[in-house]
Amino acid sequence: MNVSRLLRTLFYIKPIQIVFQLKYRLYQPKYKQLAALDLRPLHIERGVTSSCSFDNCTFIFLNQTVEFEDINWNYNKNGKLWCYNLNYFDFLKQEDISKEQGLSLINDFIDKVNISKDGLEPYPTSLRGMNWVRFLSNHHISDKKINDSLYSQFHLLSRKLEYHLLGNHLLENGFALLWGALFFNDLKFYRIACKILKKELKEQVLADGAHFELSPMYHCIMMERTLDAYALVKKNSGLADELLPLLKDSSEKMLSWLEQICVGDSFPLFNDSAEGIASEPKELIKYATNLGLKTRRLGLGDSGYRRLESQFLCLIADVGEVGPSYIPGHAHADMLSFVLYHKHQPIIVDSGTSTYEWGGIRNFERGTAAHNIVQIDGEEQSEVWGSHRVGRRAEVEMLKDNTNRIKAQMVGFSRNRKKHLRSFYLEADFVRITDEVENAKNAIARLHFHPNVNIVQRDETWLINELSFLFSGAENIRLIDYEYGVGFNKRQPAQCLEIKFGEKLETEISSLIS
């Protein structure tokens, strides 16, 4: 183990995370069967239905299929995240799942709950609890065996809150206990949920509406959860009425950011983002509209993302920090990176996320070389390591922030603090990106292209679909292959331009068709 790197990582975390890490290492609360004393039938908004992941004991998660004769809720051959998905019970939201199928799956889990491992961890317990409450309420089911087990799971969750992780995990705990509080009319659950939600929503939803972990995918996940909570409290007045203004405010701010970060029907794959995990943006926007919520049009700000746009071109740049300093687990080494769309079609893309499993693929996808930035002397921009760790971090400073021009400086974490100055300028059908570095022996700018683009070199100009790329100051340009992480466990061959330069590089992108 690299002790110094671990210490550099621990330097940023909050004392409460250390306290709860030690607490849960010394004592782990166990599942204990309890009796549910009260029950309140709930009115549930339909919300967003889930994609088909279950069919006759066959489960599809993360683009991996497993067929069971007897369901193993501890199945780990496809990794922990696949097992988590199995235990979420999101498949209860499928349009084609019957009452009988759902009850059979719920009872099967209950019959095996005493041997459950990953499934009783707080995160999957949170998601499963909300999905069970939704299913039982929609089908008007009141079954003592199920009610007692569900109440016992919520009770266990209330004793294993993820204060050691914080972030989206703790927020999920709070949302789940809100559902449990209303379903079981339980004041203790509500007090815990209220405390978490009041604090975490104010911190985790930034002023411009972004979820503070700065992943568009996780933004969609947490926005859906916030919309669900708003609909739940609105339709079941009483115990949680005081939360309604906070949930409405958070939902409308998150809606504003989602509309600004998306191009067409999709979001860019910044940080830990992949297709096929979160609900589609258009479904979330429709859901919010059906709830009577309205966008705030706040403009992009605290999240560090910026959008430059003309009639046919759209450039979205990441000029912000790695994320919340104490929980950067979904961050990548991508300061000053960007994506580019032409006529709503992706041209330059983030290389995406295809796995959370530690190893070469995860290291590459989080690393500097996987992003549309400049790598100086082969160094990593920030000290990303493990599956979800960041030690020393680069720093970024915004120098100019206009409607058609952005200029920012990144200072690396290494001892000699190497600097990268980048500016973006967009007007009509023209983009100019200027990169400047200091004291660099080897500076390489990379542009990762979408798998569907057509790339042709013509003398000094590169033709990419209907755009031309010209590089001034380049010493060497080569086209290399990479794998685009379109989804978990799903990668496509694609190509990347590597441009080696000295102190300054100008990239001019213009439309071939005006």
What's the CATH class of the domain at 305-511, please? Mainly Beta
Low-confidence blocks of residues: none
Taking all Cα atoms into account, the compactness measure Rg is 24 Å
Structure summary, number of beta strands: 19
Strand content: 15-25%
Counting helices, strands and paired strands, the structural category is: alpha+beta
Features:
single chain, 514 residues, alpha+beta, Beta-galactosidase, Chain A, domain 5, 4-stranded antiparallel β-sheet
What can you see in these coordinates?
With 514 residues, this protein is of the alpha+beta class. 32% of the residues lie in helices and 24% in strands. The strands form four sheets. Strands 8, 11, 12, 13, 14, 15, 16, 17, 18 and 19 form a ten-stranded antiparallel sheet that branches. A four-stranded antiparallel sheet has the order 4-5-6-7, with no helix packed on it. A hairpin with a 3-residue loop joins strand 11 (395-401) and strand 12 (405-411). Helix 5 runs parallel beside helix 7 and helix 7 (167-184) packs parallel to helix 9 (216-235).
